[in-house]
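Task: sequence design from structure.
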């Protein structure tokens, strides 16, 4: 499902938070999405995004906007109580939602070339107006990508094919497919050590 109006609204809200409220990248993306989805969480939950700014406490690691967008997906698809129900059902649901969360970092990296704040901001020199302008555009695009994923998840039931992920590393080491590894994870079984060469 692609709703250009909802995506544009998410982008505009993120821009306004970043420009007018002087919110950091993570707060801006999260709050924009928060205001567009139904959530029983209080508005001040967006304060949990504050540490993510500047690649987590300006450490330059994973982009705070991308991290907050991924967290915002959990407003609709996060587990409210990971201890309810049967363990196997909870694990199956977790792997389904992981496939949703996996999408944003991949799309972000395709668009911007990296996930690292350090690498994203270096050409613009962190702290300068040029960098803030770049980050504003990045915040806007990330909010749009996040809303686009939420709309698609509503249509698909939050089930997506995995993109680049850690299971690929395990598949190479074990000789099993990603799908076989997911089935083992859903059952709570460990992966075999390594395939025999």
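Answer:
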């Amino acid at each position: 499902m692609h709703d250009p109006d909802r995506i544009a609204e998410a982008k505009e809200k993120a821009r306004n938070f970043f420009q007018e409220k002087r919110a950091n990248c993570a707060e801006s993306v999260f709050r924009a999405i928060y205001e567009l989805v139904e959530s029983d969480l209080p508005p001040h939950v967006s304060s949990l995004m504050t540490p993510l700014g500047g690649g987590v406490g300006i450490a330059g690691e994973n982009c705070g906007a991308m991290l907050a967008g991924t967290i915002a997906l959990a407003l609709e698809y996060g587990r409210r109580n990971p201890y309810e129900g049967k363990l196997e059902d909870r694990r199956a649901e977790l792997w389904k939602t992981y496939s949703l969360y996996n999408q944003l970092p991949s799309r972000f990296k395709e668009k911007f070339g990296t996930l690292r704040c350090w690498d994203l901001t270096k050409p613009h020199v962190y702290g300068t107006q040029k960098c803030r302008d770049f980050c504003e555009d990045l915040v806007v695009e990330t909010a749009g990508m996040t809303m686009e994923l939420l709309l698609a998840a509503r249509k698909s039931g939050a089930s997506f094919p995995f993109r680049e992920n850690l299971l690929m590393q395990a598949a190479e080491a074990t000789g099993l497919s990603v799908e076989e590894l997911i089935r083992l994870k859903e059952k709570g079984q460990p992966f075999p050590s390594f395939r025999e060469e």
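The two ends are 45 Å apart (CA to CA).
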